[in-house]
Amino acid sequence: MINESYRPSRKEDHEVFPCTWYAVGWSKEVKREPIKKRLLGRDLVLFRDQNGALQALHAYCPHRGADLSLGRCEGGLLQCAYHAWSFDGQGRCVEIPAHPGRPIPAFADTRSYPVLERIGLIWVYPMARQLLEGEPPPLDLFPVLENRDFTLAPYDAVWQAHLTRVVESVLDVAHVPIVHNKTIGKNSSKDITIDFQAKENTIRIRNGKAYLEYAFPQHWLLKPVKTEGSQFINYVTFTPIEKEVTAIYGLAGRNFARSVPGMSRMFSAYSSKVLKEDQAIVESQHPRPIPDALRMEAHVQADGPQVRFRQRWYQFLTNEEPRIKISDAEA
Ligand code: FES
Ligand SMILES: [Fe+2]
Prior knowledge:
15% helix
């Protein structure tokens, strides 16, 4: 049920985000060396163990706070560059070279985060394993993304904007013929009748020959209404890096011309170009997150999907849904 009545806002509303799986980078970025990524104000170090499985730890060593991404992978462990303490994927400290053979205290352990790889992306669940009761929920992806008939061309961007403003930009049909008048909106009419359905966590918009599907809070897919013959799809996922910094990871998919050289590069470049057309506008929006109540901005009929998104976001803020607070990053 959508909660229509909204309580007065709290300052912390601007720094809480749904606790769910977020993409933090591309699988191919993590090879032999550890790398650092940021999610919800937290620095993480990613590395591969001896089986090639990805592991994610808090980025700073529990000993003297050295950046673990300066370390190296040795026998499936991550070894700190400063005094060579070694950590496994669960964050357990398993070796302290200065004191060989002595028991390792529990406070030498560090936080580890659930991490997995799907559709070429690295996904992190932003609640440390040590604080989680049981397993994190499964990561739900649109099934078409794992359909092997499609080739997916990656692209990404980082915008200086709050997640809510970024999400709204992809639910906004009215801006397409204006902002994208040289690309995807070239032939669209400015006069639109919005046709959409919203359920609890999903919004589905019919836009000409395509559907836009949004799954709260971080997944969006464009797919053709017709599901036979040549098909083009476009998927985007949103990651809050900081309160007002959002990463966007995209996959432009096609089931045609799959082995034509240069084709994937072309799809990636075109999708990046379209995204770039929105960037300055979305980064300009004030207040930085969406306002605290519907009445605080003007809405017309064409804004229906965004209004539904706002209601869902307000519901998230109001209810006891799993959440992560940016300022708790070092807690
Ligand atoms: S700071 Fe990492 S081992 Fe000392
Ligand atoms: Fe756009």
